[in-house]
Description:
Elements: E1 24-25, H1 27-33, H2 47-58, E2 62-68, E3 76-81, H3 86-94, E4 98-99, H4 101-104
Amino acid sequence: MSIRKTQRKNKTKQVISWPSQDLYFTIDDLVKANPHMLTAATPPSDITLRVRVTKATEENLVAIIGQRNCGKGRPKNVYAMQPVKQSAIDKAKADGISLDMPKIMSVLEVSTQLATHAVSPVTNIVSSNKPINA
Length: 134
């Protein structure tokens, strides 16, 4: 029995429960935490979560911090919430995740203004006439 197009429910208002900033996660972790986001197809698909994670990555809410090699097939991306905390990086390193350091590092702000340092003249210099032992 097929579902007609007018009977399908659009799941655009579903809310994702994101992990804390101290943890790293994969799509599989998000599927376990958000089973309501799976599609009604047989077998259920996680495409909705994948699209949401991609959009969150483009909006700088989520960062790709590395990849987990599972043996066969394509490595799985590992994510962390922005700003990426050092504790999430340390946990990922301890679990054997290959980290992408250029993607994790924050970008410094560049401005066209010159840095000015206040220089104050030194006064009241007292010198002793004692020879310095070499």
